């Protein structure tokens, strides 16, 4: 019996459990972990064809692996894309995308609210090689359109953003990109395909840090690009072969198994996040709460349409303070008062992780860039896990109520 279903015939929850490469001759039910750096070829002629890309078959560990292929097939099926190329981390996926699509003189339009390392990579590191970039307000469609130039090749958005959970109109940005002859890439790390499928809204590329919710338990690092077969084969695979930002088979196997529980984890963690956001919004020590599931969120209606009527599992909030110095001190007090939750900059874990973005994920940015992104000294990000909600609120209350 074939172990490879037709993705169009099955529900997302079934694909998350079943989509993979064919079973080996041993008939394993749990997908096999293939730890090998090389592959024995059936003949010299077949080897030549495989290395030339004329025949399917694994040739070298840097180019591909059956376990890695299972992860790629599963994620592509969940996102509704033709193909997927995995990488060693989310940032290496972004680097692969830029190296595969851009050259000196090309222009990229990005949200100014994106993850700090993404802003640094595109705005500073790629600029050394002649790639131009413009950063615009995440939610201002007119600003995105005005930023497009004749040499614009890529629009890159993250929705919801890290850490302010701003939501962009994917369909509107896709129309702008395609009218300019450019591509739209969407970072779907916060929502995952369990809550949002950007390709159904017009995106050409979906980027993932598998380190986050795809793994789901904070164990390994991984990244991926979901796109058309043409983009994967002609633009991304050559970069992988040359640059070697390859996903390790063990990491691929861990994330592959993590995908099996993605749907139920995202729903449960999102339910917790909504309850936490509502509790924070009512707290006297909190200035503002950022969560798409709240009616007070500026893009609440859009988020409910794009994100399967669910706000996701990340909540950010600002503590009340008189000035930035006091805000930083108060935020640190809340963090240092925790006894249950984890002070950690990662997200997507079953454990609730709490961080201070201004000094961590956005710490390498200038103050001007942080202000443009809305990352203040009093901002705290909570990646909500699976603990009992009253234990989560009690741990944060310990600091908030002693400010």
Topology of this protein?
Layout: H1 12-18, H2 44-52, H3 66-79, E1 83-87, H4 90-101, E2 107-111, H5 116-125, E3 132-136, H6 141-147, E4 152-158, H7 170-179, E5 183-187, H8 192-195, E6 205-209, E7 223-227, H9 229-243, H10 249-258, H11 262-281, E8 286-290, H12 300-306, E9 314-319, H13 324-336, E10 342-343, E11 353-355, H14 367-373, E12 379-383, H15 389-400
Parallel strand pairs: 2-3, 2-4, 4-5, 5-6, 10-11
Antiparallel strand pairs: 1-7, 6-7, 8-9, 9-12, 11-12
Short description:
With 403 residues, the protein is α/β, with parallel strands linked by helices. Helices cover 39% and strands 14% of the residues.
Sum up the structure in keywords:
403 residues, alpha/beta, Aspartate Aminotransferase, domain 2, Aspartate Aminotransferase, domain 1, 2 domains, 7-stranded mixed β-sheet, 5-stranded mixed β-sheet, 15 helices
């Amino acid at each position: 019996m074939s172990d490879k279903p037709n993705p169009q015939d099955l529900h997302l929850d079934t694909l998350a459990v079943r989509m993979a490469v064919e079973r080996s001759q041993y008939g394993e039910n749990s997908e096999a972990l293939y730890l090998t750096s090389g592959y024995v070829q059936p003949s010299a002629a077949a080897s030549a064809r495989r290395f030339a890309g004329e025949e399917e078959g694994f040739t070298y560990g840097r180019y591909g692996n059956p376990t890695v292929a299972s992860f790629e097939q599963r994620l592509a099926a969940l996102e509704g894309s033709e193909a997927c190329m995995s990488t060693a981390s989310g940032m290496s996926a972004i680097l692969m995308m830029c190296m595969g699509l851009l050259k000196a003189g090309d222009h990229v339009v990005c949200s100014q609210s994106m993850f700090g390392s993404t802003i640094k990579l595109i705005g500073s590191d790629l600029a050394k090689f002649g790639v131009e970039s413009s950063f615009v307000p995440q939610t201002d469609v007119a600003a995105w359109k005005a930023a497009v130039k004749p040499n614009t090749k890529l629009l890159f958005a993250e929705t919801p953003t890290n850490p302010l959970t701003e939501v962009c109109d994917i369909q509107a940005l896709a129309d702008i990109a395609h009218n300019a002859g450019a591509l739209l890439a969407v970072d779907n790390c916060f929502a995952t395909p369990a809550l949002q499928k950007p390709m159904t809204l017009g995106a050409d590329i979906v980027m993932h840090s598998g380190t986050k919710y795809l793994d789901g338990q904070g164990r390994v690092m991984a990244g991926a690009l979901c796109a058309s077969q043409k983009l994967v084969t002609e633009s991304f695979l050559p970069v992988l072969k040359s640059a070697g930002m390859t996903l390790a088979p063990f990491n691929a196997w861990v994330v592959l198994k993590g995908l099996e529980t993605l749907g139920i984890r995202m729903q449960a963690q999102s339910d917790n996040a909504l309850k936490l956001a509502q509790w924070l919004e009512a707290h006297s020590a909190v200035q503002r709460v950022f969560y798409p599931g709240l009616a007070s969120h500026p893009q609440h209606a859009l988020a409910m349409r794009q994100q399967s009527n669910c706000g996701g599992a990340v909540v950010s909030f600002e503590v009340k303070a008189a000035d930035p110095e006091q805000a930083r001190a108060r935020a640190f007090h809340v963090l240092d008062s925790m006894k249950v939750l984890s002070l950690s900059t990662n997200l997507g874990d079953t454990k609730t992780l709490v961080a201070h973005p201004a000094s961590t994920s956005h710490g390498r940015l200038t103050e001007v860039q942080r202000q443009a992104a809305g990352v203040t000294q009093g901002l705290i990000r909570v990646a909500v896990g699976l603990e009992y909600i009253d234990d989560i609120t009690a741990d944060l209350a310990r600091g908030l109520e002693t400010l």
